[in-house]
Structures are given as structure tokens and as C-alpha cells.
Task: inverse folding
């Protein structure tokens, strides 16, 4: 078996600022991920799944820094979404990405729900997106505090 190929991360482009958010914290990834799960649940949402991209890419012979993706949502939100426009199912669940950074620290990244739901031009989805944006900001603030 050949040694794993290390993946050097590229530079984040400026376009992400229009649809994504990032916060950085100086704690180990395992601690940040646990705080994030706790903050999600404290907000009344459900943690649905956690993905370990580091383990997945290792199976294909690549090596990346510690990374987790935490998927979350709530059945009540799903019902609201589907009543408004079933095509918006593609926007759920929401996800936080937690990444150990090569220069140190851990980043928490997420897509802006308000931006995603606004694409449907539906007043109920606009309201849901804004509500979820505020919830995501609150969750992230609890983790980096």
C-alpha cells in the first residue's frame, strides 16, 4: 500500500462571503464539534448525522486535517418547508463544517439559509431562511464564546 497523499488546501475565494459564513476558534476540533452538537440541540434542532471526511478520503489514499460535517434540522421545519415549496427539500438538512486549519485553530463554516431559501421567491421560505440564519448565528456564537 502506498503512503497517503497529503491534500494541500487552496485559498478561499472572495465569492464565498456572499453565501457563506465562517468563525474561527482556538480549541481542538473534538471540543468544537461537541460544543456545536450541544448548541444545535440547545437551540431546539436535532443533530441528524455527523460525517468524518478525514476517514472517507483516507479510504481513497488521501490525507486531510481533522474535519467533521454536522447535519441538523427539525421535523417542524421540514413540514413548513414542504408546505411552502417541496422543491426546497434540497436545502435541508443544514450543515456545519468544522475543519482543523493548517495554521492552527479550527474553523466553523456554514451556508447562509436566508440566501438559499430566497432563491425560491416564496414569502414563507424567505421567512424560514431568515429565521434559520439567526439560529445558525446564535449556535456559532455559543461555540466560539
Result:
Amino acid at each position: 500500500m502506498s503512503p497517503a497523499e497529503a491534500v494541500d488546501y487552496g485559498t478561499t475565494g472572495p465569492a464565498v462571503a456572499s453565501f457563506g459564513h465562517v468563525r474561527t476558534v482556538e480549541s481542538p476540533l473534538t471540543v468544537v464539534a461537541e460544543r456545536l452538537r450541544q448548541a444545535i440541540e440547545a437551540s431546539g434542532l436535532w443533530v441528524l448525522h455527523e460525517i468524518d471526511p478525514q476517514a472517507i478520503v483516507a479510504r481513497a489514499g488521501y490525507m486531510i486535517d481533522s474535519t467533521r460535517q454536522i447535519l441538523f434540522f427539525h421535523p417542524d421545519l421540514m413540514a413548513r418547508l414542504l408546505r411552502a415549496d417541496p422543491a426546497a427539500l434540497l436545502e435541508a438538512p443544514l450543515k456545519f463544517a468544522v475543519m482543523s486549519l493548517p495554521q492552527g485553530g479550527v474553523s466553523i463554516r456554514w451556508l447562509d439559509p436566508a440566501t438559499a431559501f430566497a432563491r425560491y421567491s416564496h414569502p414563507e421560505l424567505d421567512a424560514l431562511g431568515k429565521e434559520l440564519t439567526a439560529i445558525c448565528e446564535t449556535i456559532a456564537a455559543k461555540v466560539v464564546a
